[in-house]
Amino acid sequence: MISQSDIKRICSLKNNKGRREHNQFLIEGYRLVKTYLEGQAEMVSVYYTKSFKQHHKSFISLFKSLEYDPVLINEKLMSKISDTVTPSGIIGICKTIKTPVPNFSAPSWLYLYRLSDPGNIGSLLRTAAWFNIRNIAFSPYSIDPFNPKVVRSAMGAHIHLEIHKNVDFELFQQNNYLTLGADQHGKNVIDQFEPTHKWVIVLGGEVYGIQQDIKKKLNQIFSVPRTGYGESLNVAAAGAILMSQLSKK
């Protein structure tokens, strides 16, 4: 059984205010809920439809790890609490992943400066997890990393990362990081670059990039050399290439 107050709370998780108030976020879809359950994320409730149960009978065995019974709801209610146009039939509610104090002794960081596109951010988080860049910082005025669209795009990467919000760029300077930016007018020498100590990749927003006063403070600015056609790469593609190159150093 699901109460009206529960419905209201779940719907509120689609916006920043609701997520902050309840310290929870919404995950949706077969693969994502499975990933979070297997990753032992703190999932406080699960809701699914009869149709989902019929098509994923083996999946129900995963529910045995829960300390509560998942709630069966009808399709109409699933559409109401879902954040997608075509609901998959299963939703999980997780406690927001707590992160410790930023570890400024870590060898590598990814700093996302005023990024706003959920798809790009989710892709960057997946890539960071892939290359074991576990420390992620979002600048003030960035999108919430627990936005449902970001969470879906990241495909479970949140479990493996330490994500920090509202982090000022200057903290990396104060903690003696090599600050490495990406810009289409930067130097095409990433393959020749050998970091001498701990570093942070700084990626700017999709429209305006890195703010000029921050760009001036960067130790290095790289770009990805073009060998074919195209005006530019989006931030997720450029960031993936830089992370791949730097993770080999």
UniProtKB/TrEMBL annotation:
The keyword Nucleus does not apply. Keywords: Methyltransferase, Transferase. GO terms for cellular component: cytoplasm. Residues 26-100 form the RNA 2-O ribose methyltransferase substrate binding domain. GO terms for molecular function: RNA binding; RNA methyltransferase activity. SUPFAM superfamilies: alpha/beta knot, L30e-like. GO terms for biological process: methylation; RNA processing. Belongs to the class IV-like SAM-binding methyltransferase superfamily. RNA methyltransferase TrmH family. This is RNA 2-O ribose methyltransferase substrate binding domain-containing protein.
